[in-house]
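Hi R.,

As promised on Friday, here is the backbone we talked about, encoded as structure tokens. Could you run it through your design pipeline when you get a chance and send me back a sequence?
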């Protein structure tokens, strides 16, 4: 609930890359992609044995104790002295940055190789130490929320305290759901052996799984196996799907236990805190109102027939099938050029697209390449997915991905660099105000993807290649919007049903098939084995109800990009102001300069019409080709 007591390492995973790192054996058969960078974490620490690590732990411990001794039981009294209260919050903020630096380093080191026992131990030990330190600070936000409203309104007139107004206002929203200090300490400490432990069990289990795919010379890790679902050859896709289903079924009892445990853990927390709906705590963290999310969800579900159902029926026709088996959903189009981009080419493409929009945006992104803030090779034990970790404002973000040279990898790079640019621009807000709610955190990432896609499309002259690119983009957008809303609905079913008792694997499988059938439509045949594919989605484990943020961001960006194309007055400046604000403004304030209102259902319809329009364009291409 607080900046310090949150997990020390938070990543932004992209929908396009939510799988495990491929094995070295699989990578050895890959084309030459040039020199792919590994990150340099020395801006955080030079190594686990860096004396600065122990020194910063000692500093954090001492400073937490000093803050507790100096301010516990006294914050309400400081309300009469705005500058003094600001000084207390500034000390708390600086400590948040220091502890975040330690946690970020441990998390990034672990993410780069979860199979390394030494890194796993360092990460686990660091998490324990930071949790122990944070328990001394739980009182701080609880006491701030006990300050009388009138007294706080008077104190905040002081310029030094006025800086923190948005943070204090957000903190006030958490007041009804906060517990007394001893209970908050218990929740924090038990998190290590509860949610945190089960999340780590899931992650390390997924990293260690190997899949025997017919026709492959050696077992593959998850990402390499999922990658085969995009293979041009149907038999390879089918074999990959069968291998995935077998291993997921072999481990279904473990994944069912993890899911039940974490859903119950959340139910206990929600009940004690007073959250009524299963997603209320996520909405609060996202600083978004439930009716806004409900409008998004209902708009997307209502659009399923016009979007995913229609597109997959077209794709089945292109592939010469009556219906697509679930392993054909991501199959490439017939005669699609199997284009491979080297790493230098990917860098050039993204920076050129960013630069055409705003040279400053490209300049920030270029630092990630020049200063080795990116870790991109496939590597044994590397975490699944892609993310841009903001770390802390006093340092800079780091990007992790698993680059294989595909066009989708270029889009993932553009996506994560969008996060990175956003995080760089927002860091002047400081540790308490820089973090952006998930609903807005996807804005720059999806916008960066759109810029890169449009740049590539404008340079494509072949009608066949253009059709393939548009179809690929439609699939990406369906994955970002339709698939993520289906994920959200699956989570709702799971968490609502879990309140009535433990769920069986068969129940979970049935929920999965229900939401997938509704969202994908009759053109996709969900064959036996697909019912267990819910098991590998990390968001369900690590960040309950995170997923709707992707749909929120995609629809928002569609509306923003439409304004950009229409030469909306001062668009670039307004866009940079939005990113620089970080978490200091509500989404309604940030969208107002663009004339947009997320509370209006028409807003979501406008964003969805962009996807619908691209499907219309594909249909027109089909008619012209007849």
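Update: got your reply. Pasting your designed sequence below so it's all in one thread:
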């Amino acid at each position: 609930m607080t900046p310090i007591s949150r997990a020390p390492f938070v990543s932004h995973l992209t929908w396009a890359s939510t799988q495990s790192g491929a094995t070295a054996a699989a990578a050895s058969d890959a084309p030459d992609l040039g020199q792919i960078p590994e990150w340099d974490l020395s801006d955080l620490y030079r190594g686990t044995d860096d004396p600065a690590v122990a020194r910063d732990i000692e500093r954090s411990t001492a400073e937490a104790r000093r803050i507790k001794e100096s301010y516990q039981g006294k914050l309400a009294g400081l309300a009469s002295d705005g500058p003094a209260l600001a000084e207390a919050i500034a000390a708390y903020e600086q400590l948040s940055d220091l502890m975040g630096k330690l946690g970020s380093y441990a998390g990034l080191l672990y993410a780069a190789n979860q199979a390394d026992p030494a890194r796993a131990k360092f990460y686990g030990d660091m998490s324990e130490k930071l949790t122990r330190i944070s328990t001394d600070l739980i009182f701080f936000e609880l006491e701030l929320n006990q300050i009388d409203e009138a007294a706080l309104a008077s104190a905040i007139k002081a310029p030094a305290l006025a800086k923190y107004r948005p943070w204090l206002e957000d903190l006030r929203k958490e007041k009804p759901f906060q517990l007394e200090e001893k209970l908050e300490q218990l929740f924090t400490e038990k998190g290590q052996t509860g949610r945190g432990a089960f999340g780590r069990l899931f992650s390390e289990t997924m990293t260690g799984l190997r899949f025997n795919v017919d026709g492959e010379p050696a077992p593959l890790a998850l990402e390499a196996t999922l990658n085969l679902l995009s293979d041009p050859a149907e038999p390879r896709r089918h074999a990959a799907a069968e291998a995935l289903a077998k291993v997921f079924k072999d481990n279904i009892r473990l994944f069912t236990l993890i899911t039940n445990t974490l859903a119950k853990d959340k139910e206990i927390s929600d009940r004690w805190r007073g959250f009524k709906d299963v997603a209320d705590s996520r909405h609060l963290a996202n600083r978004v109102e439930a009716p806004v999310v409900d409008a998004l969800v209902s708009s997307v579900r209502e659009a399923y027939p016009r979007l995913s159902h229609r597109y997959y029926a077209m794709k089945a026709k292109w592939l010469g099938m009556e219906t697509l088996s679930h392993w054909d959903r991501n199959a490439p189009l017939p005669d699609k050029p199997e284009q491979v981009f080297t790493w230098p080419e990917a860098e050039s493409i993204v920076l050129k697209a960013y630069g055409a929009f705003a040279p400053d945006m490209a300049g920030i992104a270029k630092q990630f390449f020049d200063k080795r803030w990116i870790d991109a090779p496939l590597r044994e034990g590397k975490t699944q997915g892609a993310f841009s970790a903001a770390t802390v404002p006093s340092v800079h973000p780091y990007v992790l991905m698993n680059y294989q040279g595909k066009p989708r990898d270029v889009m993932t790079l553009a996506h994560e660099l969008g996060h990175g640019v956003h995080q760089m621009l927002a860091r002047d807000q400081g540790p308490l105000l820089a973090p952006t709610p998930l609903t807005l955190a996807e804005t720059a990432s999806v916008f960066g993807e759109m810029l890169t896609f449009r740049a590539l499309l404008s340079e494509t002259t072949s009608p066949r290649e253009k059709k393939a690119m548009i179809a690929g983009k439609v699939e990406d957008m369906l994955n970002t919007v339709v698939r993520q809303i289906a994920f959200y609905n699956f989570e709702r079913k799971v968490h609502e049903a879990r309140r009535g008792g433990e769920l069986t694997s068969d129940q979970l499988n049935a929920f999965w098939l229900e939401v997938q059938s509704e969202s994908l439509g009759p053109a996709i045949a969900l064959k036996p084995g697909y019912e267990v594919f819910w098991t590998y989605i990390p968001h369900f484990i690590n960040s309950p109800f995170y997923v709707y943020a992707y749909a929120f961001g995609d629809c928002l960006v569609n509306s923003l990009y439409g304004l950009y194309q229409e030469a909306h007055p001062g668009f670039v400046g307004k866009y940079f102001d939005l990113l620089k604000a970080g978490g200091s403004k509500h989404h309604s304030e940030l969208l107002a300069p663009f004339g947009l209102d997320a509370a209006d259902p028409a807003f979501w319809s406008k964003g969805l019409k962009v996807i619908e329009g691209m499907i219309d364009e594909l249909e027109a291409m089909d008619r012209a080709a007849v």
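One thing I noticed while checking it: Residues 1-28 have pLDDT under 50 and may be disordered.

Thanks again,
M.
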